[in-house]
Design a protein that fits this description.
Elements (H helix, E strand, L loop, with lengths): L1 H13 L22 E15 L2 E6 L2 E5 L12 E9 L10 E8 L1
Parallel strand pairs: 3-5
Antiparallel strand pairs: 1-2, 1-4, 2-3, 4-5
């Protein structure tokens, strides 16, 4: 009897829906709500990169993940200069990029 209950639980878990909705890169600066500012960066040269429906700003080996990237900068390999607040990454998470809130981009 126990093996039937276990099999049913496994089957039920395997059939549960998954959220495959891509993250919208135009969501606003509240997507990182509740995170502390670790530091501010000024006039950092970056290159725009897009992966998995998200935009990242790459500077050397550092990948920054802005909450919102203005539409005119959403071009792969575009070079820009940014100033931003760098936000914390929680100890229990792994991220593709360091979360930032853009102050300026040019």
């Amino acid at each position: 009897m126990i093996k039937y209950i276990f099999a049913f639980a496994v089957l039920l878990a395997a059939c549960s829906p998954k959220n495959n909705t891509p993250i919208d890169p135009t969501i606003g600066n509240d997507c990182f709500e509740g995170r502390k500012v670790e530091k501010s960066i000024e006039n950092v040269a970056v290159t725009v990169m897009s992966k998995m429906n998200r935009y990242y700003l790459v500077s050397g080996s550092t990948h920054y993940e802005p909450c919102e990237l203005p539409a005119k900068y959403r071009e792969e390999d575009m070079e820009c200069t940014i100033s931003a607040d760098v936000l914390e990454i929680f100890p229990t998470e792994r991220r593709a990029g360091t979360p930032i809130i853009l102050k300026t981009i040019k």
